[in-house]
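Homework-ish question, so no full write-ups if that breaks the rules, but can someone show me the predicted structure for this set?
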Amino acid sequence: MRPLIRAVVLGLVGYVAGAWLTVAVRGGSPSDDVAVVFGFILGLIGWLMGIGVWNAWAREWFGLPAKPDQATGWKRYFTFNTDHKVIGIQYLVTFIAILLLGGAMALVMRMELARPGQDFLTLDAYNKLMSMHGILMVATAVAGVLGAFGNYLVPLMIGARDMAFPRVNALSFWLIPPVAIGLLSAPLLGSFDTGWTAYPPLSVVNQGGQVLFILAVTTFGLSSILGGLNIVTTVATMRAPGMTWGRLPIFVWGAFCASILSLLVTQFFAASLILILLDRVAGTTFFGAAAGGDPLLYQHMFWFYSHPAVYIMVLPAFGVMLEIITHLARKPLFAYKAVVAGFWGIVGLSTIVWAHHMFTSGMAEQLHAPFMALTEAISIPTGLVFLGALGTLWQGKLQSKTPLWLAFGWLFNFAIGGITGIYLADVATDIHLQDTYFVVAHFHYTIVGGTIFALIAGSYFWFPKITGRMYNERLGKIFAVWLTVGFNLVFIPLFWLGVNGLNRRVADYPEFYAGPNAFASVAAYILGAGFLLYAGNLLWSARRGPAAGPNPWNARTLEWQLPSPPPEHNFPLLPEVVGHPYDYGVPGSVHAAQEAAEGGEE
Amino acid sequence: MNERGGYKQDAIRVGLLWLGLVVVLEAVWFATEILPRQYAEEAKIIDDAFNLLTILGIPVFSFVVAMLIYSAFRFRSRNDASEDGPPIKTSKPVVVTWLVVTSALALAILINPGLVGLAELRANPEADLVLEVEGQRWQWVVTYPNGAEVRDELVLPVDTRIRFDVTSVDVLHSFWVPGFRTKIDAVPGLVTSVYVTPTELGTFTDDVNLRLQCAELCGIGHARMVMPVRVVEKAEFESWMAEQLTAEAPAAEGRG
Amino acid sequence: MALSAGAAHERAEAMWRPRANRLGLWLFFASEAFLFAAFISARFVTSGTDKPDTLNQPLALGITVVLLASSISAYLAETSIAHGDRKGLIRYLSITILLGLVFLVGVVFEFREAMEYFPPGTIYGSNFVALIGLHGFHVFTGIVALAVALGLGKKGHFEPDDYWGVEGVVKYWHFVDLAWVIIYPTLYLF
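A: Not a homework solution, just the prediction itself:
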């Protein structure tokens, strides 16, 4: 725990020093935007140095020997540990905690929305709570699956001993706590009330909490970029002998494609937020119309990241779900190559569809038709993912296990999310539906129904690998049904509300919309209560569950050929890959030569 | 189990299930009225697009659901021994068919309702009446051709093609009347336009969707940035508009 | 057995490590290119190719030449250590740092003039501040990285067959140069 305490202390010292120095130089108050900026930057550096960047890394820059932390056991999780499995678990636990926190915020929002009129949250408080919920959940969706399973599984699945840059990997994770602290302490500076989208001019003129939002989210972007860089490099250079691109497990493909997007487009989000920051602290006028600025510039830059971000969230989720489906249907992944082509199609198209978020923004009308066409075209590669999933289930020997139950829920949800997306790609219908509850319902179907379902399903499927123990199957299945049904009960009514004229991001609404709102609120409590079952099952099973053995699913990919949990550096001897990972039922087929199992001494 | 016979039988059964689902869901869609009442020509164009997308979307959704239901019951492994399924190779004809069908669907919706809807919405750039709308935190200010500035109620003549020229003085807002379906953002430094041709008389007090609602988050008062809308006969509109000017004069003096 | 496994892993790492380092660096450049592209596109979207006639063209041309020259010295530093010439490494790294500092001083002068003639409250001034600031920050980090390499070089680190630290830093410096080659016309010439 010492590194963590040191990090907190140095972080605080850095923050105070930065803010104090700023005040000393230019006067004003320590809660001014500029002071917050310098405080945050020095605080961030202090935090990182304290947690271990100095000891494990920066010392080398001065010719001193690095002193990596030697902690073992549970203490590893609180240090600058470079083992990809430790980092994967750090991500998993952190983002499940943030997911539950963001979910709790959603329940408070649903309480306010349960009936019309303003009940116990002020309009302002509601806007701020909604904004916080939004950004926490977006962060969870962006980094949850990719950070947790990407880190934990990619090296295992490709037969590598770690990531290409283990220290960069640890850095990626340890950038996350300052993000969470920055966002959650924004209320001290008046919070932010712009939603997670932070559109200017509102985000230029509102309270100082917006500055913490900008700094935290930019830091989060840095973490995403470094994480993406690491996964791309790892997959490109560290595959075991024989692990050709055509034999990569589908999750690795999903993580790889998402990482390429994350690596590149995240910069546009950072850039757009930095421009807002400059407008706030440096007197620039990018978004001030009076001096010739252009508020729409932000929307273009923001959505150039934030639409691909949807695919950063969902491509690894596709990977998780297709892994689960193919292992538990015990059949070769149907149309493997077509699915991979679909992933690449999504990567290519995702960066040229952003302006469908802007059909009502006042942008040039000539852009409407091309962006509608490109957006609708993205349904074709996405369709290939469905082909892979449904084709694999067809004629399979489906193992009735929790992750597969969740995969069914996922396919159902994502079908709804995908089809309702068409309404928002079509200019005519989007003109009506933009900024309504229809949009809210749609993106919850894709992001919760798509990505969060994958996070949860993956946390069951790889639970025995990560903990060495088995979760309770019966409770898992009850939760799978509870989650799927509860989720649909919450969000189906929201489609009706949107179509019938309820705009999003409001604490109060006309009496007319009372019924479906009350229904959704009650359903939300039921859905929320279900998570106790989830957390309870996994927490209890992690300590008391029956031993799972190395390969409870009898699965073929490399991670299942190792002990549970896998030892440090994974493979005593690098495996030799000789066949496709999903050739279930193919007589005599082997994925990898099994030297590793014998040479277990290291 | 006869493998080849099994395939065919499964395909037929899932096809029937699909067909059944499509019939039921389409029937439900046609039997229920989900879209709110239309108060403008533009609403008709947008609702037609919505209906067409739903009619085409139901078979797609039903296909996924039929496959899921059928797979869950028919292909569940009865013994827990992790026996392998048949190593079905990727069938090229299936992939090609899938691609052709999904591409055709995407192209179809792009043409209609996509491009057709867009063309219909933009067919007529003429306007019989131009109103200037200004969003400000947190109210709407509408300026009528005679110079009257109105804040408490948006009164519009029926069967008149109206263009709203929308802008904002502070942050982003969005001009949206759900009963008309049309929406456009109010952007500082930019005048955006939207056309509405009201076809039905009505007031906010009778239908909540006759309200000018801000649809772009603009701060504390966003939820309540609402202006009631009333659609009236043309003659009534003219006299109302004239009244506004006389009503406004003393008020303006009082403010000064 | 354990020993031979360890040796095998070392051999494997010697295979992929240089490739991973280079690929990682190039991916980082690709990512950074998007950041610069975002700022540059902001300039053209908000103010087209407008520019004030109060720009100090001679100064800008001057610091451009300085920065380009620093890329040459950086290259010489890298070839020096590749040939085992430690003195050359130290000499050329020092020259590169010096030139970088001269560039930064020039930028500070430019900034002061900008505040007077085209302040951030104008749209060109906004883009000027953002682009020069972004690039200046990269030059600053580049100088820090060069200084770290210089310090290590002086302490006897880096060998002709192991100078990735120098190579990476120098490549980064070239990248920062290249960014300026695009930003300079964006702000001064178009």
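Now go work out the reasoning yourself. Hint: The first helix of chain B runs from residue 3 to 31.
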